[in-house]
């Protein structure tokens, strides 16, 4: 049976919580605070929704950053990003050697692209893309569709592109062209791609 309170409200529809005053354990110093069940459920739902949004954001970052050892493939030029042997230039080629294997190392603002064969990082010198030991360039890996990425400088509209004549990697303004799209593939998947050609 529902008990009526002084103001005519139904006690069964109200949860009563009591909080003790911090300085006293005396039972006369208890402060009754009432919350409706609806307000409690709404507050719990908001907290749960916020926790889920944070989890989804973290998963999205984890799934979009292709960490590990990969070959960075450009379908338009039918080759991978490689360090030119004996130099610091980065080109797109079809060689299957270790100069085309990159370690993707996630960072707070993006990723470092490290070439284990040379011990250098993918960096920038003017509009040229080079490998360098002294400066670790952070790259933003921006999803451009299923399994395809733009490799860009964080907070800038400059992306990794390929010079059509020299096949050297360069920085250019993002224009949405397929030359600026890259796939991160494992060495095993990369070998399969060339067997199908």
Automatic annotation (TrEMBL):
It comes from Mortierella alpina (Oleaginous fungus). The chain crosses the membrane at residues 40-65. This is Ricin B lectin domain-containing protein. CDD domains: beta-trefoil_Ricin_MtaL. Pfam families: RicinB_lectin_2 (PF14200). InterPro entries: Ricin_B-like_lectins, Ricin_B_lectin. Keywords: Membrane, Transmembrane, Transmembrane helix. The keyword Transmembrane helix applies. Residues 136-188 form the Ricin B lectin domain. Gene3D superfamilies: 2.80.10.50.
């Amino acid at each position: 049976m529902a008990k009526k309170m002084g103001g005519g409200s139904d006690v069964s529809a109200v949860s009563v919580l009591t909080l003790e005053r911090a300085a006293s354990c005396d039972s006369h110093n208890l402060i009754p605070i009432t919350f409706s069940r609806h307000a409690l459920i709404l507050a719990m739902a908001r907290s749960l929704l916020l926790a889920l949004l944070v989890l989804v954001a973290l998963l999205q970052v984890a799934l979009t950053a292709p960490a590990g050892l990969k070959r960075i493939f450009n379908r338009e030029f039918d080759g991978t990003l490689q360090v030119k042997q004996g130099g610091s230039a980065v080109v797109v080629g079809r060689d299957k050697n270790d100069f085309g294997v990159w370690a993707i190392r996630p960072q707070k603002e993006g990723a470092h692209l490290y070439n284990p064969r040379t011990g250098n990082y993918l960096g920038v010198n003017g509009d040229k893309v080079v490998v360098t030991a002294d400066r670790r360039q952070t790259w933003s890996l921006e999803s451009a569709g299923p399994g395809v990425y733009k490799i860009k400088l964080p907070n800038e509209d400059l992306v990794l592109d390929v010079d059509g004549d020299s096949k050297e990697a360069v920085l250019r303004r993002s224009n949405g062209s397929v030359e600026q799209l890259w796939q991160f593939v494992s060495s095993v998947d990369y070998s399969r791609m060339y067997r199908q050609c």
